[in-house]
Design brief:
Elements (H helix, E strand, L loop, with lengths): L2 H5 L2 E2 L5 E5 L13 H16 L3 E8 L8 E11 L3 E10 L2 E11 L23 E2 L15 E6 L15 E7 L9 H7 L3 H9 L3 E5 L1 E6 L8 E11 L2 E10 L4 E13 L15
Antiparallel strand pairs: 1-2, 2-4, 3-6, 3-11, 4-5, 5-6, 7-8, 8-9, 9-12, 10-14, 11-14, 12-13, 13-14
Length: 280
C-alpha cells in the first residue's frame, strides 16, 4: 500500500480535481479529518497533477471535515516552469472550505548539499522503546493506524500534572500499512504532532487544534521508522508554536514541519485545567 491508498485519495476524469472520502481511519478520536491527512492528500494531489515532487507545502486549516463526507481537492498550477511548479489546492466539502494548501514542486540538478541539523545522540532503537500510551480508545482512527514509541516524553497520565517540561518530545513513528516507502504525503501525516508536544511540554491533559502546518522536504531515504524530534518554542495567548524534525533511522533529516495550534483540554479527563487547578 502506498500513501494515496492509505488515505483513500482518488483521481477523477479531471486531472485537476481529486476526491478524498473522509472515513474514520483518517480521522481523529474527536470525529474529524486529521490535519496531517488533509495536508498529505493535498500534497499527493498536487504531485499527481503536476508530475513533480513537493519541495515545500503549507496548509491553513479553516474548517472540519467529518467521516461520511467527501472532500474535493481542486488543484491549480499557478506557475509551471522548466524546473519548478508553484501550485495551490483548495480542499472543500460542498461550499465549505476545509483547508487551503500552497506548494512548490520540482527538482534542480545542483551538486552542493548539506545537513546541518543532526539527530539527537544515543537514541534507542524503536523496538527498545515503550509504545506511546493512549488515554482514549483510538482504535479505528488515524492514531490507531500508527505505531509510535516514546523516546523522551511523559508516558503515564499521572505525569501530566501541570509541571512544565523542557519543550522537547522524541517519538519514533511509523505507519505499518504504508510499505512502499516514505514520501511527502506520509511525512505530512507523521509531522502533525506539535499539538501533542504542546500538551507534553505544558504537562497538561490536552493538546490542540492545528491552525496551520508547513512541510519542508529534503532528501528522502528508505526507512521503516521516522524519529519525530518535536520542539515547542512558546505558548502564549492560548496558542502554541513549534516544529518537528523528521529523521530517518540512519540519521538523514528528511523533512521539517512547523505549526501553530489552538490549545485545547481533553474532555472529561480529571487533571490540571486552564487555571492550573484540577478539574472536577
Amino acid at each position: 500500500m502506498d500513501s494515496r491508498q492509505f488515505l483513500g485519495l482518488q483521481p477523477t476524469h479531471n486531472p485537476h480535481r481529486w476526491v478524498l472520502p473522509v472515513v474514520q481511519g483518517i480521522s481523529t478520536g474527536g470525529g474529524f479529518l486529521f490535519g496531517g491527512c488533509g495536508l498529505g492528500a493535498a500534497v499527493a494531489a498536487m504531485e499527481g497533477t503536476s508530475g513533480r515532487k513537493a519541495v515545500w507545502a503549507t496548509a491553513q486549516y479553516l474548517s472540519y471535515a467529518k467521516p461520511g463526507e467527501v472532500m474535493d481537492i481542486d488543484v491549480t498550477l499557478a506557475v509551471h516552469g522548466h524546473q519548478i511548479t508553484q501550485a495551490r489546492a483548495v480542499c472543500h466539502v460542498g461550499d465549505r472550505e476545509i483547508l487551503t494548501v500552497n506548494a512548490a514542486l520540482g527538482d534542480r540538478d545542483l551538486e552542493e548539499n548539506g545537513q546541518f541539523e543532526k539527530m539527537p545522540l544515543n537514541i534507542p532503537k524503536p523496538l527498545d522503546c515503550k509504545e506511546r500510551p493512549h488515554v482514549l480508545d483510538w482504535s479505528g482512527t488515524i492514531s490507531g493506524r500508527m505505531d509510535q514509541r516514546m523516546v523522551k516524553g511523559r508516558e503515564e497520565l499521572e505525569e501530566l500534572d501541570g509541571t512544565p517540561g523542557d519543550g522537547q518530545v522524541l517519538l519514533w513513528s511509523r505507519i505499518p500499512e504504508v510499505i512502499e516507502g516514505v514520501d511527502a504525503a506520509t511525512l505530512s501525516i507523521l509531522g502533525d504532532f506539535v499539538p501533542m508536544g504542546v500538551g507534553q511540554s505544558l504537562g497538561i491533559r490536552g493538546g490542540g487544534n492545528s491552525l496551520d502546518n508547513t512541510l519542508r522536504i529534503g532528501k528522502l531515504v528508505p526507512t521503516e521508522w521516522v524519529l519525530l524530534d518535536i520542539r515547542i518554542h512558546m505558548v502564549e495567548r492560548g496558542f502554541g508554536h513549534g516544529l518537528v524534525h523528521m529523521f530517518a533511522e540512519d540519521g538523514t533529516l528528511m523533512a521539517t514541519a512547523s505549526q501553530s495550534c489552538i490549545i485545547r483540554f481533553w474532555r472529561d479527563m480529571p487533571g490540571p485545567g486552564p487555571s492550573g487547578k484540577a478539574k472536577k
